[in-house]
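Quick one, T. Sequence first:
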Amino acid sequence: MLYYLLFPLHTTYSAFNVFRYITFRAALAALMALLISFLLGPYLIRSLAAMQISQPIRKDGPASHTAKAGTPTMGGTLIILALVLSTALLADIMSLYITIALFVTVGFAVIGFIDDTLKLREKSSRGLSARTKFLSQLAVSFIAVIVLFNQPNFSGALGVPFFKNIHPDLGLWYIPFAMLVIVGASNAVNLTDGLDGLAIGPVMIAAGTYALVAYVTGHLRFADYLQIPYVAGVGELTVFCAAVVASGLGFLWFNTYPAQMFMGDVGSLALGAALGIIAVMTKNEILLVIVGGVFVLEALSVIFQVASYKLRRKRVFLMAPIHHHFELKGWPEPQIIVRFWIISIICSLFALSTLKLR
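Structure tokens:
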């Protein structure tokens, strides 16, 4: 919005020419998202506490989590608000990529909001049924992927990390594949959100990684130099990714151990979906497995735990997701969180190396 209001003034005042640059608007969006978070965060915490919107604690969870009872939840609304406002103000809102990114993020946030509301109403950790939640996620993903797939410059070809000449084209099968990427990323982040600041750290790192990926993918010279698929206009997602990083950082100010508020599904489902749709639009879907290594680990730990118990009546971990396993082994919560952040940084650096090592 500000882009359209201020950039035309560059013909009269040359200083406004800076708004043409994605990097400048990305930095400004990040600062704005931080400012919104810091200004609204304390008010949101007081409001959630006054309305007694607190996180239901799992009865089968670690005993140490009972101390978290009464902590306000649905703090993810702060992230979504800061993200949407800063993106709408400083990104090119006429860009299809920005429109779809916001649609998916807000759509999954609504699903998470309903899920959180039901949990609070029923005073349990169940919320929406798995079937209803999954079908709702598929519906939002389907709309976004169909719109993308019908664009003349968009194809079902995949980029394969480390291989510059391998681009398998899935054709129509790309639609369910892309939907799986979005829904899978959303639920993987949701599973990771179990400790104070555990999920938001890797989300920021992944979003920062994809900010760089989006920029070089949407820049013809950089894409040609790195020999990666060029996607015209996708560089605008750099602004969106920067807003994700900064809104997450602003939330972390209040969510760091011991948390003043929890993210809730309204935040985790939306942020995971945001990462998924960014991976799809930048044509770096497979790279998300590397970038989001922590999320993959958390999701696989649940899959292995459930499969092992059903098949052998034995558990692989003391508790799943895997961060609870380390809790029960005696690791302090901050230690688990920081070590998972370190792993996420390593995954990010490894993923970025694939841009050149081809």
